[in-house]
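Subject: Putative oxidoreductase

B.,
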Amino acid sequence: MKRVVFDVAVLITRVVTGVIFVAHGWQKWQAGLGATTGAFSGMGIPLPGAAAGFAAVVETVGGVLLILGLLVRPVALLLLIDMLGAIIFVHGGRGVMVGEGGWELAGALGALSLLFLALGGGRIGLDGLLGAIFRRREGRRAAEDELIEHRRGPAMGPGPSNVRTTGVRPAGAEGAYPAGTGVQGGPEAGAGGRAEQPMTPAEPGTPAERPEASRRPSTPRVHAGGLDDEDMRDIDALISEDQPEHRKPPNR
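Prediction pasted inline below.
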């Protein structure tokens, strides 16, 4: 609510000040730049021709821009310079009252120009409208960029793979699995062998899991006739004593 009151007050002050400047500038144009230059020369203003042209253009165009609320701060700076020149070279030594040629009017207009230079023209004006459009466009662009980065991040970032690959047990790893125990493979695995098992690579930063067979105690397999694996190995040992020739292990 306070901001709305401020904007309305600035709008009214800006329009009134702009109308006053337009009136004084238009008066100089109506009198003609030659007559205005002569008047400035009689007042002792240095460079009267340049000063007359500067005052006529700045007061007329600057007043219109103040009313519209466009380029308020740059225009206010030029109008402040114009009023300071009027006070210093014309009205400063004539007192305060405007009827006596004092600096009353020039001082009030200069103070208003300084206020606009410091605070701007408020939101009710072309500057406020263009600024709101620009900020809205920048906010929309920033939101779109953030959405694009959010969508692109998971697709490009590293993540755990869900693809299961088939790995072959490395050479020399047969000793880690007792013969006849663990998961049994097909006919191509041989006695006590292990078929190729699907292997999933361990995720980064986590220790690789040991095979299930190495963590669980093996249960002796019972063969026909009530014989377990240990009995079968004893029988194999007796047979090997009768037949000393060395038998090549299957699939070696």
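The longest strand covers residues 165-166.

T.
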